Structure formats: C-alpha cells, structure tokens
Amino acid sequence: MVKRAPLTTASAALLSVAWATALAALAIPAARAAAPEHAPAANTASSSAAATGPAAATPPVTPDPYADGSEQSGATKAAVCFSCHGPNGNSQNPAWPRLAGQNAVYIAEQLHLFKAGTRQNPVMQPMAAGLSDQDIDNVAVFFAAQTPTGLEADPSYWKAGQALYLHGDAASGVPGCVACHGPVGRGNPAAGYPALEAQQSVYVVSQLQSYANGTRYSGPSATTAAPNSIIMFDIAKRLTPEEIRDVASYVQGLR
Ligand code: HEC
Ligand code: HEC
After folding, report:
1. 7 ligand 1 Cβ < 6 A
2. Mind listing the pLDDT tens digit for each residue in 66-97?
3. Which of 100, 116, 120, 164 could form a disulfide with 89 if both were Cys (CB 3.0 to 4.6 A apart)?
C-alpha cells in the first residue's frame, strides 16, 4: 500500500475541533515556510511563457520514495486510463482531471475511495473497481512520474487567482492555497495533499463546487473515510464563484 506520512503539526491542528481558529494563526507562517526564495515565477506578469507554452526546464516529478508501486507495471495498467486522462495522464478533456505529476499517495487514496463508493462517479467507479491494491499502487507511481503539460491560465483571471492562491482572503477566512498545495502547485506528497499544477480549470471548478456543496464524498462515514476532505469542505464553502473561477485559472497555468 502507498503510505501516507504522519500528519504534520500544522495539518493535525487543522483537523482539530478548533481548526478554524488554528488556521487563522497558522496560515501566514505556513505559507512563508512553504515558499522557497527561488520559487519559479509561474504566471508572473512579465512571463509571456504563461500565455505561449509550458515553462521550460521543469524538473521531472519523481515517484514518491515510500510507495511500493512499480512504475513499469503501472504503465501497462495505465494504458486504459489514457482514453480519458490523456496520453501519460495529460488529459485533453477540460472536465477530466490531469493525473500526470499528481502525487502517488493522493492518487492511490482517491482510487480506494472510488472503489469503496465514498467518492461517487459513474465513469470512474467501474474503472477503480477493476484494480487490485497492487495495481492501484503501480498506476499511482506511474502517473506521479509523468510530466504535467497542458493548458495555460486565462489572462483575464489569473492575477486575482494568484493573489488568492498566495495570500488567501483574510476577510472570509480563506488561507492561502500555497500553504498546502505548494508554491508551484506540486502539493505535499508526504501528506498526500494533491498537486494542482496544470490541473484543468473546468475540473478544478467542479471539485471546489462539490466540496462546497458536500457532494465530493458521500455515505454515512464519508469524512472518516476521507479525513483530508474536511479541510477542503470548509475552505471551498468560503470561496465566491468569482474566486473559484480565478484560482482555477491560475492553477491551470502553474508548472
Ligand atoms: C471513461 C473515462 C475514464 C477512464 C477510462 C478513467 N477515468 Fe479516472 N476519472 C474520470 C473522470 C470523469 C474523473 C473525475 C471524477 C469526478 O469528477 O469526481 C476521474 C478521476 C480520476 C481520479 C481522481 C483525480 C483527482 O485529481 O482527484 C483518479 C486518481 C483517476 N481518475 C484514475 C484513473 C485511473 C488509474 C484509470 C485507469 C485505470 C482511470 N482513471 C480511467 C474518467 C475516467
Ligand atoms: C490546509 C491545507 C489546504 C489548504 C490551505 C488548501 N487545500 Fe486544497 N486540498 C487540501 C487537501 C488535503 C486536499 C485533498 C482533500 C481530499 O481528500 O479530498 C485538497 C484538495 C483540493 C482540490 C481537489 C484536487 C483534485 O485533484 O481533485 C482542489 C481543487 C483544491 N484543493 C483547491 C484549493 C484551493 C483553490 C485552495 C485555496 C483557496 C486550497 N485548496 C487550499 C488541502 C488544502
């Protein structure tokens, strides 16, 4: 099984009953800690690369070292996934998520949640049902090792989206997304926090809406089965439709 590292102090605090209060105290230092000084300036105003093509020299994402999946076996199993998730997990349908470069812990977790019916989707549930635990680890490691490519940010929206991503919205109690999803959207592989870089904006909008309205997971034990979801349920509820549109556009252009 692909294993999740123990919760960090910050994320454990977020899961506590008083998490909203803890979040207010944590968001700013956490965001600072997460942003290295040399963070690539994706989507900066001066960067015409944001509008013209994928950033050059992006280091390949390596498989998580603590996963016991086999990338080679995963490649064979993953071929069937390409019809929807695109070649090597670079989806070409805006509503279907990109898997290339997503972290293995998160991919494996989501496949188990589809299999258990906690995350419901008529298309994905049968796909996940056919995978053994070992298959899940293998495809997870395979997709994590692929390089995400894809669409760019919408020039009308990404600046507002960048401000929200980096700084949150103090007035509505939204923390900066950077604290957990990282400066260039690579997520936090050790904790299983998903990468958002290059994710299709249409898919991102749909997921933020389904966290906000509580439909991303269902069933009586949905929040115990997907404990991380509590974090996003609360954050997504505080976002306006415009903020969702803007931040979705911004992350689509992140590399
Ligand atoms: C027929 C189309 C189709 C096929 C084939 C397919 N998927 Fe999916 N997949 C989807 C859709 C649509 C979603 C988004 C579901 C939702 O909105 O909740 C999804 C979501 C996912 C997610 C969650 C991504 C995230 O960011 O949360 C994972 C992981 C995934 N698929 C893995 C796979 C794997 C592995 C295979 C091959 C074994 C596969 N899929 C085959 C359509 C497909
Ligand atoms: C405190 C940590 C934290 C913060 C801050 C945070 N997220 Fe998340 N996010 C998570 C975790 C953990 C998940 C996975 C939840 C699950 O299991 O469904 C997630 C999932 C998501 C997903 C679904 C990804 C997918 O592939 O389906 C989106 C989209 C997302 N977050 C967007 C955002 C945005 C936008 C912000 C800022 C406004 C934000 N997040 C702030 C932790 C965080």
Report:
1. no
2. 557 899 999 999 999 999 999 999 999 999 99
3. 100
Contact 205, 244 (CB under 8 A): yes
Angstrom distance (rounded) from CA 203 to CA 99: 12
Task: Judge: domain 9-253, CATH 2.102.10.10.
Answer: no
Q: What is the mean predicted confidence (pLDDT) over 104-129?
A: 96
Q: What is the pTM of this model?
A: 0.84
Å from CA of 98 to ligand 1 middle: 9
Would you say the CB of residue 124 lies under 6 angstroms from ligand 1?
A: yes
Mean pLDDT over residues 134-155, rounded? Answer: 93
Q: Which amino acid is present at 204?
A: V
For ligand 2, the distance from its centroid to the CA atom of residue 208, given in whole angstroms, is: 8
Regarding the beta carbon of 177 and ligand 2, being less than 6 Å apart is answered: yes
Rounded (5°) CA angle 220-226-228: 135
Contact partners, residue 177, CB within 8 Å, separation at least 6: 164, 165, 166, 168, 196, 247, 251
Q: How far is the CA of 181 from the centre of ligand 2 (A)?
A: 7
Cα dihedral 110, 240, 40, 93, rounded to 10, equals: 50
**Distance between CA atoms of 251 and 143, rounded to whole angstroms?**
19
Q: What is the CA radius of gyration of the chain?
A: 17
Tell me the pLDDT tens digit for each residue of 213-239.
Answer: 999 999 888 888 898 899 999 999 999
pLDDT band at 61 (very low <50, low <70, confident <90, very high): low
Instruction: Enumerate the domain spans of the chain.
Output: 9-253
